[in-house]
Amino acid sequence: MFEPQTVFGVRLYAARGSVSGPTRLVIGGLHGDEGLFTTPFIERLATAELTAGDAILVPSLVADGRYIGVLSEEYYKSAAGKLLLRLIHRYRPSFYFELHAYGQQSYERLTDPERVHKIGVPHFIELGNGILIGSIAPLLRRRFTSEDFCMTIEIPKWTSEDELVSESVLELLRIALASRDRAALMQTYRARYPTQVKHAEELFNRYYRHFLKPF
After folding, report:
1. CA 20 from chain center: how many Å?
2. Residues 6 or more apart from 187 whose CB is under 8 A from it?
């Protein structure tokens, strides 16, 4: 059962399973108005049961904060970025998820195959219904180990209230809550989303040259 808590001034939900397992940290609303869109998803996730390990769910890191891209060093020097790093340091998650929300005008930019040449990071892969997946910002990924699992989920703002979108995003996260280790998580994702995950893994491996395990 998830219980509401306030840590570092941030409202979150925390739960501990009855047996040992990974620590999961799910954070939404990292900048701009994204929290308006990520909060409903994470609050629904907080009604799930956790059987193993720990889970910390943050519906919105900041409330309608200034938009600074998470790919830039400036973000991690900002109040929001410093708060994010404090939470990561406190919980030291093995599974880390960022929930972002994007506008319709940003779809082509986020999924552009030339993105890696234009701004230095791979493009996102569409899971379906406008939901995009990829790894996290390289600047932040370095703070995790090669064995940790780190994923960004981009939610389409214009259809965020669609039940199909909600269930698709929640399914991704519920799988993480149910998985007791990285291998089990990846096995389930590969079975459930074979084409999309394979493509995302290929992009990750090409970018990190196999030094890290996807994601």
Report:
1. 22
2. none
Interatomic CA distance for residues 97 and 107, integer angstroms = 20
User: Is the peptide bond between 215 and the residue preceding it cis, with omega within 30 degrees of 0?
Assistant: yes
User: Phi and psi dihedrals of 171, rounded to 5?
Assistant: -60, -45
Convert the pLDDT of each residue in 178-203 to its tens digit.
999 999 999 999 999 999 999 999 99
CA 128/CA 28 separation, integer angstroms? 20
- Give me Rg for the CA atoms of the chain: 16
Cβ-count burial of 181 within 10 angstroms (0-12 exposed, 13-18 middle, 19+ buried)?
A: middle
The contacts of residue 106 (CB under 8 Å, 6+ apart) are none
Tokens (6 digits) for 63: 């409330």
pLDDT at 65 over 80: no
- If one counts every other C-beta atom within 10 angstroms of the C-beta of residue 35, the result is 22
Amino acid at 208: Y
Domains of the chain, by residue range, sit at 3-208
Band (pLDDT 50/70/90 cuts) for residue 157 is very high
Q: At what angle do helices 182-192 and 163-178 cross, to 10 degrees?
A: 150
Domain 3-208, CATH among 3.30.1150, 2.60.40, 3.40.630, 2.30.29:
3.40.630
Look up residue 101 and give its two tokens: 């929300």
